[in-house]
Design a protein that fits this description.
The complex is a heterodimer of chains A (about 325) and B (about 130). With about 325 residues, chain A is α/β, with parallel strands linked by helices. Chain A contains 8 helices and 20 strands. Chain B has one domain: Alpha-helical ferredoxin (Fumarate Reductase Iron-sulfur Protein, Chain B, domain 2). Classes of the chains: A alpha/beta (about 325), B mainly alpha (about 130). The structure holds iron/sulfur cluster (3 copies). One iron/sulfur cluster binds next to helix 5 and helix 6 of chain B.
Chain lengths: ~325, ~130
Amino acid sequence: MKTVSIIGAGPAGIEAAYVLAKQGVAVSLFEKSSSPLKNIADKAFLFPNFAAATDIVEQMNRKLLNANITQHLDTDIVGLVHEGEQGWKLTDNRGNSYYSDNVVLATGYTPFDAHRKEELGYGIYNGVVTSLEMEKMIRYNQIVNSMGEKPKRVVFLQCVGSRDEKSGNHYCSKVCCVTAVKQAIEIKKQLPDAEAYIFYMDLRMWGQHFEEMYRQSQQDYGVRYVRGRISEASGTFDGRVQIKAEDTLMGLPLKMTTDLLVLMVGMEASEGTRCLAKAAGICGEYGFAQSTDPHLGDNLTGQQGLYVCGACKRPMSINDVVNDGRAAAFAILEG
Amino acid sequence: MKKFGFEISKGRQLNFDEMKSEKVEKLLELVPSYKWCIGCGGCTAACSAAGFTDFNIRKIHTAFFRAQYEGLDEQLNQCMLCGKCLLVCPRGVNTRSLIINMRRILANVDTVTWRPQRELKSKNEGGNNE
Ligand code: SF4
Ligand code: SF4
Ligand code: SF4
């Protein structure tokens, strides 16, 4: 039976590993961090059904335990090359090598660094936070403004680092729209007296129940939507944030003071994705890895024995990547 | 007094910190379906009045929602309450009730622009005034 190395122990990599191991394939799973599922670990609830992220993490961890998977944690794979008879050679940051017949790239994404949008004040004003930080606040029931008090108003800004020439990312990150709606609902659940505003260019409610969630946020939670992109944020003397935007449905400029400005940061190719896609010669756009065909060959790479799955290809949601990990496993089983 | 022929222009910026939204709250209470509005403009596209005048119902209710009430009562009087807008709204907003209640709120609360009921009636002869 052929051997498989999977690089990246996120939901995509774990799902692929689990399916293969259950079919009797010898699987090694490599992860650069000290524990799997790093990107989900601090999440509170997952859209669209508000499933607790801890449950998903627990179930995925159980998959790791219940299947015969060799885990290599704290192992950062930096080299990937095909060496004829011996198959694929993986090299880690300590210089160790590992050989296998097949490799699955599941190296995922990294969140956009909000410091790069300096005009939005991240890292300058304490009232400006990222969607990841907001997710943590929700998870630990600690939604507070820069003074440590309960916020009276929270403003979300969509498309930070996505759909933006200035960030060099023309693409849409797919999950941030619905994440903002989800987080706004969570805020209203925890702090019913707070106002929640979402500033958007388009609201992309592509998935099942997303549009319904958007409607529910209006109907049951009074979340307010403003079509317009915030151009700048500045600090106020009392530790709050003042934003400027155009209310494009009114055709008028607007200003608003808020306790918290939440930047919905997009997804970029992770360092591992960039480095390994380059090493294996499967670079796509924006540093992501490229599959051979988006319809019928989305896990194939054109290189014998090299497969791709999950957010190393493009922005994806958690349910997307789990299914894609599964699909990659079956692509390998088919040979 | 000498006139110099210039004046200070009024600020056009919407200030969300100083919005007086009691009327908005009242409207949402009377017409809860308005909470579903997504600003798509279907109502304006369907409106027979919009094709020939500057009457734009989507703009009017957006302005009301932003507490920009000035001049709205005047504009709302151009509506014939035909209800075509109601037929197309993708979110099921009861636009007709929305219009009637915007008028009512503006008339009741703001006495300066209050219009006698009979005038409203005469403008909508034969129509349902509720
Ligand atoms: S999902 Fe929404 S917020 Fe995210 S990049 Fe796309 S349009 Fe912008
Ligand atoms: S058609 Fe309905 S949803 Fe669209 S702008 Fe008019 S009231 Fe709002
Ligand atoms: S009810 Fe008024 S706003 Fe609606 S279509 Fe008729 S005239 Fe236009």
